[in-house]
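The authors assume throughout that readers already know how a fold can be written as discrete tokens. The format is easy to grasp once an entry is in front of the reader. For illustration, here is how one protein appears when written out as sequence plus structure tokens:
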Amino acid sequence: MTDAQMRLTRLTIRSFKSLEFVDVELGDINVFIGANGSGKSNLLEALGLSSAAASGQVDDQALLRRGVRPGVPASYVSSFKGMTSPEPLKITTTFTSDEGTVEHEVSRTAAGSADPETSVYIEDTVFASADGQRQYHGGRVTLLPGAPLRISEARAENGGANMPEVVRDVKDCLYNYGIFAPTTPTLRGTVSDFTQREPVGLAGGQLAVAVRDLLKPRKRKFGTLDLDELLTLLDWVEQIAVVPPSRAIVSPSVPTLSEVIRFTDRWMADDRNLLSAYDASEGALYVLFALVLALHPKSPRLFAIEHLDQNMHPWLARATVRMFCNLLLKAQPQRQALLTTHNPLVLDGLDLRDDRIRLFTVGRNATGATRIDRVHVGPEMLKAIEGGLALSNLWIMGRLGGAPDLF
């Protein structure tokens, strides 16, 4: 890995699902708000397609491993009413550091004699620019169905056979990208996670193991976070531990993994105050899940979370997002997150005066194409906030955008 870590600074998408043309400049924490069906998930999945292409394998399994919903190839390309000749699919991710710029481009190419409804070819290209030199690496993979081809890594305009370190860094960052969408049964440990990875699966699998890795009760630490700060979010919890399953806290009819999270309830009698993850408030599990991704050393450098606020009280969601942002911005190695939410109070946990934290509204234009706009903190917004209106109020009032037109 390079000393100056490459960061994703721009995402440009053409003709992918509802994203006819989108160009987004990204920070370290990027929150996307908008109505259901506006295109938020499509944005995350476009990055997932780039991730699969960077791995050299774009098929159903490669997409599922990244949290992308597989579909027939024809459904990946934008197709709006009245559109006679849609633009070719192209997804460009731009990474920058002090060492230069790397663009990773995924584009649809001619399928030859193959049926475009069942087979689409994807060109995977990397342009690296450093010290005034431009280098190229590329290959071709097949998108659904059939066996994918491996990408050649050894082609360069300057004749070099070795991949530049900055290109390798970008490939590694993209390769490990995933869209996390935790579910309550998986977080409880009663259902297997078919998209397992380190430190947790995309659905929240092996949460107990990840919590155990971070939990240092003697030092009163959860990773780099003071344990007492964590417990301020979970005000009913006196202690957290990770233990082997015991019939004293888990019913014999409940399937469990080799380790379970155990909570000590501060309000209950001493002989009945131990709860497993199966019995505990599900909101606590979603809080732990979010903080694991912010703190764990094996978390991806680039990841997305669908509905970070899921199953949390609005005030808990606001406090969790505030803590998540503070921890992620201090993480080493540096990490970037793309988040979606429908909870207005999540916005109140964002310090938009910090340019590393960015808020985007997502909606559809008159033709149905997704439009994404960054919310900037300007004089008018500051005046409204100083007048007593929070970002959540401004969103509900329709002054930020990203809200369905239902009234």
In short: Residues 7-178+300-396 form a domain with the Rossmann fold fold (CATH 3.40.50). The radius of gyration is 22 Å.
